[in-house]
Amino acid sequence: MEEEEIGVNNPVEREEIEKNKTKKTGISGVIMSAVNWIIMLCDELHWSFVMGVIAVYGISQGLSMGLSRVTMQYYMKDEQKIQPSEAQISMGVVRFPWVVKPLWGLLTDVVPLSGYRRKPYFIFAGFLGVISMLVLSIVDGLHLVPAVLCLMAGSAGVAIADVTIDACITENSSSHPTLASDMQSLCGLSSSIGALAGFIISGFLVHLVGSKVNEKFSDATKAMWTTLKSQHVWKPCLYMFLSLALGINIHEGLFYWYTDGKGGPLFSKEIVGSIYSVGALGSLCGVLLYQNMLKNRPYHDLLFWTQLLHCGSGMLDLILVLRLNLNLYIPDYLFVVIDEGVSHMIGRLKWMPLLVLSSKLCPCGIEGTFFALLMSIDQVGMLTSTWAGGFVLHILHVTRSEFDNLWLAVLIRNLLRLTPIFLLFLVPRTDPNLPVLPSEISKTKRDTENLEMASLLDTS
Question: What is its main location (predicted)?
Answer without folding.
Answer: membrane
